Amino acid sequence: MPRSLHGGRHELGQNFLTHRPTVDRLASLVSRSSGPILEIGAGDGALTRALARLGRPLTAIEIDEHRVEELRRSLGGVRVEHADALRYPLLAPVLVGNIPFHLTTPLLRRLLVTGAWERAILLTQWEVARKRAGVGGGTMLTAQTAPWFSFELHGRVPSWCFRPRPSVDGGILGISRRERPLVAAAERGAYERFVRSLFTGRGRGLGGALTHAARLSRGDALRLIRRAGIDPRALPRDLDAAQWAALWAALRS
């Protein structure tokens, strides 16, 4: 296939999923949702074809114009758009895609602040999927968004399941928008700054970090932590979504 105007395989991060069981797994996860589907980065259409069999409205976006033309010829019932995932409106209830590994972080950041989607099933780099799901400890980005979204890890995808083979494995990450946010939307900016201050601030453990971030005495910081039902020996990466929300509520009160 000719080289895209946007670059070759390396520039576009094209690692096409060729493992049929993984394709079927992604389609099965999407089948548990409802409503129109937006596929991000359709590539050669392996996943697109499986999604089309679900019989729901499906839009597939792809930045490689040559693959867009081929998909339009072979998938008459699918709306195929020549578009950049970093700019295309994320308005469908369900998002799914084999995300270009080099764009994983900017795409995730955009998904978590943009659009009105309800459910996302994403094939990302394994380390990204694992960290976002909180396996082995939470990250700052996960903690900052957890009051509005829940994260699930649905399995690891070995690198040999892709063509060309990438240098790292993939992971299937599920993200759901909470029907009832744990923190009010109007407080999101302040809450995100609070989380950042605990992850990046001075102090030993959660108590020390809260002492400096909130300008409290050590005793007041420990009382707030206990009021939120959190072990004072915990670290920021140890807290789950409910504990972050409880700590924020205790501080606000």
Automatic annotation (TrEMBL):
Record lineage: Bacteria, Bacillati, Actinomycetota, Actinomycetes, Micrococcales
Keywords: Methyltransferase, RNA-binding, S-adenosyl-L-methionine, Transferase
The keyword Transferase is annotated on this UniProt entry: yes
Residues noted as binding S-adenosyl-L-methionine in the record, renumbered to the chain: N15, L17, G41, E62, D84, N98
Any Pfam family matching the protein: RrnaAD
Gene Ontology terms for molecular function: RNA binding; rRNA (adenine-N6,N6-)-dimethyltransferase activity
SUPFAM superfamilies in alphabetical order: S-adenosyl-L-methionine-dependent methyltransferases
Protein name as catalogued: 23S ribosomal RNA methyltransferase Erm
Originating organism: Leucobacter weissii
Family listed: Belongs to the class I-like SAM-binding methyltransferase superfamily. rRNA adenine N(6)-methyltransferase family.
InterPro entries: KsgA/Erm, rRNA_Ade_diMease-like_C, rRNA_Ade_Mease_Trfase_CS, rRNA_Ade_methylase_Trfase_N, SAM-dependent_MTases_sf
Residue ranges constituting the Ribosomal RNA adenine methylase transferase N-terminal domain according to the UniProt record: 22-179
Tagged with keyword S-adenosyl-L-methionine: yes
Endpoints of the signal sequence: none
Cited SMART domains: rADc
Record GO cellular component, one term: cytosol
